[in-house]
From TrEMBL:
Pfam families: Transglut_core. Residues 158-224 form the Transglutaminase-like domain. SUPFAM superfamilies: Cysteine proteinases. Gene3D superfamilies: 2.60.40.2250, 3.10.620.30. This is Transglutaminase family protein. It comes from Allopontixanthobacter sediminis.
Length: 264
């Protein structure tokens, strides 16, 4: 599937400020960058650095004043999409080292607090079948409500409120998976069909590879809005703190954001 992406960001900084941006589609085996262009104003400093797990890049900038960024890309997605409910779990001692960190609690995903719930609600299920049941449970019991959460909202807050946006759905999905002993990470993506159009967030879980030894990361969208065959990865992390599209080490005002994603 070929996906077209167009992003425009406008923001203002009253003084020179270090700013980290992550909004470009990642160049990884499962998605081919056909064309890409990023246009921005002058910066006091600009460098590209590898993002978490070497998936995508971050722009490290020192900028001031009014700034505009335009990003356009065409990406061809070609990833393996097995029936997730058929995939087996891997025991912790079988996991590769890079997956271990995604079993642990993080800022927004306190899995330890959910172990008893997972054991009772999803009793008798394992691996991908358990993941599919968790995804369906979130879809059934949560209401997608723009404006209902903020940058401090955790998976536990969302679980109690039973409402949120894609960020919150992904945090709950990641948390439930980790509580079941399945590595899970937060994934920032572009996807057609997201309403309202914006950056999107999904979970990604590590399960046994059906085609051979080892494991494989599989996308899971608890909102039900993104089709994995059309989803373009930007970056991954323990939770949203690792893959925000914009992190400033000082004061900044985001004055405009427009994200358009479509298939070709």
């Amino acid at each position: 599937m070929t996906v077209k992406i167009s992003v425009r960001l406008l923001f203002e900084l009253s003084e020179p400020t270090d700013t980290m941006l992550q909004f470009e589609a990642a160049a990884i085996p499962e998605q081919q960058i056909i064309s890409t262009q990023t246009v921005m104003g002058a910066a006091l400093h600009c460098a590209r650095v590898a993002a978490q797990d070497s998936i995508g890049e971050r722009l490290m900038l020192r900028i001031e004043g009014k700034q505009a960024i335009d990003y356009d890309a065409v990406v061809r997605v070609d990833r393996k999409l097995p029936d997730i409910s058929s995939l087996k779990a891997m025991r912790p001692h079988e996991l590769p080292g890079e997956a271990i960190q995604y079993l642990l609690d993080s800022r927004y995903c306190l899995a330890d607090k959910f172990r008893s719930f997972v054991d009772s609600e999803f009793e008798g299920l394992q691996g991908g079948a358990q993941i599919a049941a968790m995804r369906d449970w979130i879809q059934d019991y949560f209401v997608y409500t723009p404006g209902s959460s903020n940058g401090d909202t955790t998976a536990l807050d969302t679980f109690i409120e039973r409402r949120g946006v894609c960020r919150d759905y992904a945090h709950v999905m990641v948390t439930l998976a980790r509580a079941a002993g399945i590595p899970a990470r937060y994934c920032s993506v572009y996807a057609p069909g997201v309403e309202p159009p914006d950056f999107h967030a999904v979970a990604e879980v590590f399960l046994a590879d059906p085609d051979g030894p080892g494991g494989t990361w599989q996308l899971v969208d608890a909102t039900g809005m993104a089709d994995a065959a059309e989803t373009v990865k930007i970056g991954v992390g323990r939770d949203a703190a690792d893959v925000s599209f914009m992190t400033t080490f000082g004061m900044a005002d985001l004055t405009y954001k427009d994200v358009q994603v479509s298939t070709l």
